[in-house]
Amino acid sequence: MKIIIVGDGKVGMTLTEYLAQEGHDIMVIDRNPKVIDSVVNAFDVMGINGNGANYDVLIEAGAEKADLLIAATSSDELNILSCLMAKKIGTLHTIARVRNPEYAQQLQFIREELGLSMVVNPEFEAARDISRILRFPSAITLECFSKGRVELAEIKLPENGYLAGHRLSELYKICKEKILICAVQRGDDVFIPDGNFVLHAGDKIHITGSHSALASFFKAVGIFKEQSKHVLIIGGGKIAYYLARHLAESHVDVKIIEQKEERCLHLSETLPKATVILGDGTDQPTLLEEGLADCDACVALTGIDEENVIVSLYAQSLGVDKVVAKVDRMSFVDMVESFGLDSFISPKTITANRIVRYVRAMQDSGDSDIKSLYKIVNNQVEALEFGVTQEAFYTNIPFKELSTKDGMLFAAIIRHGRVIIPGGGDHLEVGDSVIIVTNSSGYVKNIEDVFA
Asked: What local confidence, expressed as pLDDT, does residue 297 receive?
């Protein structure tokens, strides 16, 4: 596919990397010539220095023959204008990044009335992911499929825990709930395990199941934590606004520390159920005075990764039950995970995943449609949800009679609202949703790609 990316900041660069890896013809537009030189040298893409809403620039980029334009500059209005211009020129599909909370209630109107294919809000998506983690703090990360019917949770096996030394086939003896361990990270190695796989202390495991099944499993193995009820947020940016609004609506006690007075006044007016404190959230006396040690969750959302990591480590040292840090430079993650800090959020990655899912759906000509896509285990594994839309060679046939490619695992089936953790005797039916986990070096765009 021919794809134009307007704006090569954090989100644009991540999208360029992901989509170039999948073999698309990428053209990047950015006002900064140094940025263009950098991305052209880093990836096998073309670049143009200029304004992505300018007619002549779009023509030069080939917008009249492009399959998709993604506008991800720092200006919402410029993104929308870029999409409108490209659409008029002849681009088939357009996606705009729109971040301003003032537009949050208008996204559907913007998309439908202006003819955009998709509108994405990275800060809103990040806040939604954080709220899920705080709702289920036993997990390092938590992804949802099929409107929350199935969850994919990541946990780290503690030393001397119940699971270390057990084969996966023995899990049912520990907990009678239907769950499936679908991916394991052990150091730098990643496994899609079978029943004979033996767990070790320190493994990071990804588990699928219903929310109630996962909760029962975590209780059985002694790592269950209650939902966070007192949350301290460091930094009062857009993510903090969306997160605090959601938590307050769920009757969670929320306090925000923000050092800009004007922003504090705005948050106080727009978030009447939250407590907003004017202060430096990286200052130790301020954190202690505002009750960090008494909170059951701390979320560090400043604009500086280093500050978020340091505050998170300090909160963890005080015994705060759940700590989440916003980190865009993923190289930091590898360095601080050794200290036991596991829960990170990256808005650029979340946004890129959503757009990659849309791109694959555009390409899909099979008998299924892609509903969700998450990159897990440091982007080495993908978890995808497909809908089975019509009869095919793989429907109504037991899995044990079908041949799949290496590195593919059927993690869950959702049928009429019921969650099925599949075995060899189970099968797919029209109307099912199915979750597939894969570490395949090639990418999966429909269910047919799973089978050998």
From this structure: 94
pLDDT of residue 368: 57
What phi and psi values does residue 92 have, to the nearest 5 degrees? Answer: -70, -45
CATH of domain 2-120: 3.40.50.720
At residue 364, the pLDDT reads 61
Q: How many CA atoms lie within 13 A of 313 on its CB side?
A: 13
Q: Of 210, 102, 184, 90, whose CA–CA distance to 407 is shortest?
A: 184
Domain ranges of the chain: 2-120, 127-220, 230-345, 366-450
- Identical fold, 127-220 and 366-450: yes
Handedness of CA 87, 91, 95, 96 (dihedral sign): negative
Cα gap 164→201, rounded to integer Å? 5
* Fold of domain 127-220: Alpha-Beta Plaits (3.30.70)
Task: State in words which class domain 230-345 has.
Answer: alpha beta
**Which CATH number describes the domain made up of 366-450?**
3.30.70.1450
Which residues in the chain land under pLDDT 70?
Answer: 104, 364-368, 440-442
Q: What is the pTM of this model?
A: 0.83
